[in-house]
Amino acid sequence: MKTLPIATLVCLFASQSAFAGDIAKGKKAFKKCASCHSIKDGGKNKSGPNLYDILNRGIATNEKFKYSKKLVSFANENPQWTTELMGAWLENSQKLVKGSKMRVKVKKEADRENLIAYFQSMGQ
Ligand code: HEC
Questions:
Q1: In a 10 Å sphere around its CB, with 0-12 CB exposed, 13-18 middle and 19+ buried, how is residue 112 labelled?
Q2: Cα–Cα dist 36/50, whole Å
Protein backbone atom coordinates (compact mmCIF):
# COMPACT_ATOMS: atom_id res chain seq x y z
CA MET A 1 0.00 0.00 0.00
CA LYS A 2 1.44 3.27 -1.11
CA THR A 3 -0.25 5.45 1.48
CA LEU A 4 0.92 3.49 4.51
CA PRO A 5 4.17 5.33 5.24
CA ILE A 6 2.43 8.69 5.20
CA ALA A 7 -0.32 7.47 7.49
CA THR A 8 2.30 6.09 9.85
CA LEU A 9 4.09 9.40 9.91
CA VAL A 10 0.88 11.27 10.62
CA CYS A 11 0.16 8.92 13.52
CA LEU A 12 3.63 9.40 14.91
CA PHE A 13 3.27 13.12 14.61
CA ALA A 14 -0.08 13.13 16.36
CA SER A 15 0.81 10.74 19.16
CA GLN A 16 4.01 12.33 20.34
CA SER A 17 5.72 15.60 19.79
CA ALA A 18 8.25 14.02 17.45
CA PHE A 19 8.44 16.91 15.07
CA ALA A 20 9.24 16.16 11.49
CA GLY A 21 10.77 19.60 11.13
CA ASP A 22 13.95 20.25 9.21
CA ILE A 23 16.58 22.24 11.11
CA ALA A 24 18.27 23.69 8.02
CA LYS A 25 14.96 24.86 6.61
CA GLY A 26 14.03 26.28 10.00
CA LYS A 27 17.25 28.26 10.05
CA LYS A 28 16.30 29.70 6.66
CA ALA A 29 12.77 30.50 7.81
CA PHE A 30 14.26 32.28 10.83
CA LYS A 31 15.61 35.00 8.53
CA LYS A 32 12.15 36.48 8.73
CA CYS A 33 12.53 36.74 12.51
CA ALA A 34 16.15 37.85 12.75
CA SER A 35 15.41 41.56 12.40
CA CYS A 36 13.76 41.39 15.83
CA HIS A 37 15.31 38.28 17.41
CA SER A 38 18.81 36.99 17.99
CA ILE A 39 18.97 33.26 18.68
CA LYS A 40 22.66 32.99 19.64
CA ASP A 41 23.66 32.01 23.15
CA GLY A 42 24.11 35.32 24.95
CA GLY A 43 22.86 37.32 21.96
CA LYS A 44 21.38 40.74 22.58
CA ASN A 45 17.71 41.54 22.71
CA LYS A 46 16.51 43.59 19.74
CA SER A 47 12.93 44.77 19.47
CA GLY A 48 12.09 41.17 20.42
CA PRO A 49 13.82 39.01 23.07
CA ASN A 50 16.76 36.67 22.42
CA LEU A 51 15.41 33.20 21.63
CA TYR A 52 18.31 30.93 22.58
CA ASP A 53 17.05 27.77 24.33
CA ILE A 54 13.52 29.09 24.06
CA LEU A 55 11.85 25.66 24.26
CA ASN A 56 13.57 24.84 27.55
CA ARG A 57 12.94 28.07 29.31
CA GLY A 58 9.73 29.60 30.52
CA ILE A 59 7.50 31.90 28.52
CA ALA A 60 8.50 35.55 28.84
CA THR A 61 11.46 34.82 31.14
CA ASN A 62 14.21 36.86 29.51
CA GLU A 63 14.98 39.17 32.42
CA LYS A 64 16.38 41.97 30.33
CA PHE A 65 13.40 42.19 28.01
CA LYS A 66 10.32 44.23 28.70
CA TYR A 67 7.45 41.98 27.68
CA SER A 68 3.87 43.12 27.21
CA LYS A 69 1.60 42.70 30.22
CA LYS A 70 -0.54 40.35 28.15
CA LEU A 71 2.29 37.91 27.51
CA VAL A 72 3.39 38.08 31.14
CA SER A 73 -0.09 37.23 32.40
CA PHE A 74 -0.37 34.46 29.80
CA ALA A 75 2.94 33.11 31.14
CA ASN A 76 1.52 33.00 34.66
CA GLU A 77 -0.97 30.44 33.48
CA ASN A 78 1.23 28.71 30.89
CA PRO A 79 4.76 28.75 32.25
CA GLN A 80 6.38 26.60 29.57
CA TRP A 81 6.71 26.87 25.79
CA THR A 82 5.50 23.45 24.68
CA THR A 83 5.77 22.61 20.99
CA GLU A 84 1.97 22.93 20.79
CA LEU A 85 1.94 26.42 22.29
CA MET A 86 4.86 27.46 20.13
CA GLY A 87 3.02 26.24 17.04
CA ALA A 88 -0.04 28.26 18.01
CA TRP A 89 2.06 31.35 18.80
CA LEU A 90 3.82 31.22 15.44
CA GLU A 91 0.59 30.60 13.57
CA ASN A 92 -1.12 33.60 15.11
CA SER A 93 0.40 35.23 18.18
CA GLN A 94 -2.53 37.62 18.46
CA LYS A 95 -5.01 34.78 18.58
CA LEU A 96 -3.05 32.93 21.27
CA VAL A 97 -2.25 36.03 23.32
CA LYS A 98 -4.47 38.94 22.36
CA GLY A 99 -2.67 42.25 22.75
CA SER A 100 0.84 40.77 22.82
CA LYS A 101 3.54 42.78 21.09
CA MET A 102 4.39 40.38 18.26
CA ARG A 103 2.38 40.51 15.09
CA VAL A 104 4.25 38.17 12.77
CA LYS A 105 2.38 35.13 11.45
CA VAL A 106 3.96 32.00 10.04
CA LYS A 107 1.23 30.74 7.76
CA LYS A 108 2.65 27.44 6.52
CA GLU A 109 2.57 24.55 8.95
CA ALA A 110 5.81 23.16 7.50
CA ASP A 111 7.58 26.45 8.22
CA ARG A 112 6.34 26.36 11.81
CA GLU A 113 7.57 22.79 12.25
CA ASN A 114 10.94 23.65 10.74
CA LEU A 115 11.28 26.67 13.02
CA ILE A 116 10.50 24.51 16.05
CA ALA A 117 13.11 21.94 14.96
CA TYR A 118 15.59 24.80 14.63
CA PHE A 119 14.68 26.02 18.13
CA GLN A 120 15.25 22.51 19.48
CA SER A 121 18.71 22.56 17.96
CA MET A 122 19.50 25.99 19.43
CA GLY A 123 19.45 25.13 23.09
CA GLN A 124 20.93 22.91 25.72
C1 HEC B 1 8.82 43.11 14.25
C2 HEC B 1 9.53 42.39 15.29
C3 HEC B 1 9.35 40.89 15.41
C4 HEC B 1 9.49 39.92 14.44
C5 HEC B 1 9.80 40.11 12.96
C6 HEC B 1 9.30 38.65 15.10
N7 HEC B 1 9.06 38.83 16.44
FE8 HEC B 1 8.90 37.37 17.87
N9 HEC B 1 8.58 38.79 19.30
C10 HEC B 1 8.59 40.15 19.08
C11 HEC B 1 8.23 40.83 20.30
C12 HEC B 1 8.12 42.34 20.49
C13 HEC B 1 8.02 39.83 21.27
C14 HEC B 1 7.54 40.02 22.71
C15 HEC B 1 6.02 39.92 22.72
C16 HEC B 1 5.34 40.48 23.95
O17 HEC B 1 6.00 40.91 24.90
O18 HEC B 1 4.09 40.50 23.94
C19 HEC B 1 8.27 38.55 20.61
C20 HEC B 1 8.22 37.31 21.24
C21 HEC B 1 8.52 36.11 20.65
C22 HEC B 1 8.58 34.83 21.33
C23 HEC B 1 8.37 34.59 22.82
C24 HEC B 1 9.69 34.85 23.56
C25 HEC B 1 9.73 34.53 25.05
O26 HEC B 1 10.72 34.94 25.68
O27 HEC B 1 8.85 33.85 25.58
C28 HEC B 1 8.89 33.90 20.38
C29 HEC B 1 9.07 32.42 20.60
C30 HEC B 1 9.02 34.60 19.12
N31 HEC B 1 8.80 35.93 19.32
C32 HEC B 1 9.31 33.98 17.91
C33 HEC B 1 9.40 34.64 16.68
C34 HEC B 1 9.65 33.97 15.42
C35 HEC B 1 9.90 32.50 15.24
C36 HEC B 1 9.63 34.94 14.45
C37 HEC B 1 9.78 34.77 12.95
C38 HEC B 1 8.82 33.93 12.30
C39 HEC B 1 9.39 36.20 15.12
N40 HEC B 1 9.27 35.98 16.46
C41 HEC B 1 9.36 37.42 14.46
C42 HEC B 1 8.89 40.80 17.90
C43 HEC B 1 9.08 40.18 16.66
A1: buried
A2: 9
Domains of the chain in start order, with CATH, are 20-121 (1.10.760.10)
Q: Is 68 in the pocket of ligand 1 (CB under 6 A)?
A: yes
- What are 74-87's pLDDT values in tens digits? 999 999 999 999 99
CA of 57 to the centre of ligand 1 (A): 15
pTM of the model: 0.88
Return the best residue to mutate from 23, 32, 33, 62 for the ligand 1 pocket (most ligand atoms within 8 A of CB): 33
pLDDT tens track for 83-104: 999 999 999 999 999 999 999 9
